[in-house]
Amino acid sequence: MATHLLITALLLFSSLLGPVLGGVLLSTLPQTLSVQASPRPGEILKAGEDKITLRWGLNQNFQGIITDDAYKIVKVKLCFAPISQQDRPWRRTVDDLIKDKTCQFDIVCRPYSKNNKEETFKWIIEKDIPTATYFVRAYALNSTEKEVGFGQTSNEHKTINLFEIQVNSVRLALANIVAACMTAFCVVSVCVFCILEKRRLRRARLLQRNESSSSTTTASTSTTST
Ligand SMILES: *[C@@H]1O[C@H](CO)[C@@H](O)[C@H](O)[C@H]1NC(C)=O
Questions:
Q1: Which residue ranges traverse the bilayer (predicted)?
Q2: What pLDDT digit, counting tens, does each position of 171-213 carry?
């Protein structure tokens, strides 16, 4: 009887928490959007320099009737391809979109345009995008900002139409040099500060010693010490 009660309580508790803690499952979402990104398959782009042109709209090949009444916002995101998720649990794919780490980078957020207009956006790849293989996914969000539809530039298993982003190695080298210089500058300034401080203390001690002796000798030594 007690265990029965406990199980009922647990079930009730989890069903109450479920909608709060869990998110929408990607596997339940209809692929009602189509997204295109400008990079050719396998193309290598440079972070902080190259641009990606994105186009999205309703998926014309969708099997069935699309009800987009609830669509309020389209959010376009940059997502890791499986090859760049291997051995990296912090990029893992989870069906629950709140826990999913596939699409970590927001590209753009736009109000959904009702009259099936194709939207475009030109994105300069941000400097802090890590070197990896990517694809692009768009989510349609409803008024409570929950995912209600999606589309992506790759297939279901994310094996086609992938492109690479690389961190600019010259920029990275420059950043490292600047960091090294700043560290060296810090060390040097700390040393200079220590030397000056030691000198100041020594001088203060000398002055103190002189002050404790007669007033006439204080005047003569303090002028020689400075
Ligand atoms: C938005 O979508 C979520 C998930 O499908 C749903 O639970 C919620 O009721 C929707 N909100 C509105 C205002 O329709």
A1: 172-196
A2: 667 777 777 777 787 777 877 877 888 888 888 788 777 777 6
State which ligand 1 atom lies nearest to the alpha carbon of 142: 1
Cβ(70) to ligand 1 under 6 A? yes
Closest-lying ligand 1 atom to the alpha carbon of residue 24: 4
So what's the architecture of 22-171 in CATH?
Sandwich (2.60)
Which atom of ligand 1 is least distant from the CA of 70? 14
CB atoms within 10 A of CB 80: 24
Does the beta carbon of 143 sit less than 6 angstroms from any atom of ligand 1? yes
User: Measured from the CB, is residue 148 less than 6 Å from ligand 1?
Assistant: yes
Q: Is the CB of 144 under 6 A from ligand 1?
A: yes
For residue 212 and ligand 1, the question of a CB distance below 6 A is answered with no
* pLDDT reported for residue 218: 46
Q: What's the predicted TM-score (pTM) here?
A: 0.70
Q: Read off the pLDDT band of 20 (50, 70, 90).
A: low
If one residue of 96, 98, 148 were mutated to test the ligand 1 pocket, choosing by the most ligand atoms within 8 A of its CB, it would be 148
Reported as a single tens digit per residue, the pLDDT across 90-116 is: 999 999 999 999 999 999 999 998 877
